[in-house]
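Morning F.,

Quick status update on the modeling queue. The single chain you submitted on Monday has been processed. Sequence for confirmation:
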Amino acid sequence: MNKFYGTGVAMVTPFQADGQIDYEGLENLIEHLIDGGVQYLVSLGTTGESATLNADERKQVWAFTVKVVNKRVPLVAGIGGNNTHEVVEQIKDFDTNGYDAILSSSPHYNKPTQEGIYQHYKAIAQVAPLPVILYNVPSRTGSTIAAETTVRLARDFKNIIGIKEASGNFDLFNQLMRDKPEEFLVISGDDPVTLPMMALGAVGVISVIGNALPKQLSAMVQLLLKNDFKAAQKVHFSLIEFTRLMFVEGNPAGAKSALKYLGVCGDNVRLPLVPVSSNTATSIKQETQKFA
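Structure tokens below.
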């Protein structure tokens, strides 16, 4: 699945001041990212505030995204949750037209055992009409997909093609890279550790900071794919402070603040999220200016 090598971006969902979806802003964002040279886009992952969109809104965003992208880059849809039956029904109902894969986060809040996580993804794999990318993000879900569980899923289900790995646990990364099937994709899900993860064999990143700085991030990832780590380090170091600011008051508020400064879309978010503070917004503006 070479289409998922390189830089993917977990797109924000722009909102108007009244909370409605800002489709003009979404179109601007898509063009900004494609012009920035990213390899693929993820619609309605965690960064897209999918938890605050209803079923009709999700369908509308997915359809609009397909129309604007118009097959220029691959597309991934985020479909996850902690009710396995509901996730399975969402996947059955999903219009796959224009999409290349499904990204599905591990169940949050329930804190399932490893066998529960395995059975959850087994149920998804058995109905999924597209390849599935697992998503391990313990800071949000409250549980970890162990390396052994990921490897088991990769071996048992050919349509589970990879994992977005955002645990920050290098013991887990080491074990996963050692034991996984050769063709199984490990993708960084955490911007600050993309470089060291790719040094271990990850094939790229599904990024948050790429919303604002697609050109810079794509350049670094392409250098890493060419094993030019010395040149990539320079880009990595230049992005450290920007990356820190993107998450200091939560995701995607930081990314939306940078996008507002860049004139791509507004910084509105839906409750329970709120925009970044004025001090952080000033810092983000100052740091973003360095890349403008």
